[in-house]
Write a structure and sequence with these properties.
Helices cover about 50% and strands about 5% of the residues. By secondary structure, it is mainly α. A hairpin with a 5-residue loop joins strand 1 and strand 2. The protein is elongated and about 115 Å long. The model has no long low-confidence stretch (mean pLDDT about 80).
C-alpha cells in the first residue's frame, strides 16, 4: 500500500520553497486548484453564513483559500454556528442539571460546545486561522511573494572590442577620427 506509513507528504510547492534537501523528485503532475473565491454554500445556517463572510475574503487574500477548499471552510463555519448555539443555551441553562432519579449531571450543552471547539480547532489549523498555524502554512500565491531579480552579463565579443566599437561610434558622431586600438 503506497503512502499509508510515515508522516504526511508536504505539497510540492512547499518543498520547492524549502529546497530539496532529500534530493527526491518533484511531483510535476500535482494539481493546482483555480485561484478564485468560493461562494458561500446555501445550506449553511445564518450564523455560519456570517462567519463565512467574516473569514472567506481574508483567507483568499492570504492565498490559503481556493475553490477546492469550499467544503473545509463550510465545515468550519457550521461547527462555529453549532458552538455559538451551544454557548447561548449554556447562558440560559445551568451548567449542572438534576436528573429525574436525583443524580447531578453536566449539561449536554457543555459537551456540544467542547466538541464543536475541538472540530473548529482542527479546521482553523488546516486553514491557517491561528497564529501558530499561520507560521506553518505556505502559499504559492504570487501576491504574497517577493519577486526575484536576476542579473546576467552576456558578452558576445571581447570586452576590449566592444569598448573600441563604442568609442568609434561616439567619435564618428562627433565628427572626429580615432586611431584604432592595438
Amino acid at each position: 500500500m503506497k503512502g499509508t506509513m510515515g508522516p504526511r507528504p508536504k505539497p510540492t510547492a512547499i518543498r520547492k520553497r524549502e529546497g530539496n534537501r532529500g534530493k527526491r523528485a518533484w511531483n510535476h503532475d500535482e494539481p493546482q486548484p483555480p485561484d478564485a473565491l468560493p461562494r458561500c454554500p446555501k445550506h449553511l445556517a445564518p450564523v455560519a453564513r456570517t462567519e463565512w463572510r467574516r473569514v472567506a475574503r481574508t483567507l483568499h487574500a492570504m492565498g490559503v483559500l481556493t475553490t477546492i477548499d469550499r467544503a473545509a471552510l463550510a465545515a468550519y463555519c457550521q461547527s462555529y454556528a453549532k458552538w455559538v448555539e451551544a454557548e447561548r443555551k449554556l447562558q440560559e441553562t445551568p451548567p449542572l442539571l438534576k436528573t429525574p432519579s436525583g443524580y447531578v449531571q453536566q449539561s449536554p450543552w457543555i459537551a456540544i460546545a467542547n466538541k464543536q471547539l475541538e472540530i473548529m480547532g482542527r479546521y482553523m489549523a488546516e486553514l491557517g486561522m491561528t497564529p501558530a498555524s499561520r507560521s506553518r502554512v505556505s502559499t504559492e500565491d504570487p501576491r504574497m511573494q517577493v519577486p526575484t531579480i536576476e542579473f546576467r552579463t552576456i558578452y558576445e565579443a571581447k570586452p576590449v572590442e566592444l569598448l573600441s566599437k563604442a568609442l568609434d561610434e561616439v567619435a564618428e558622431r562627433l565628427g572626429e577620427r580615432r586611431e584604432p586600438a592595438e
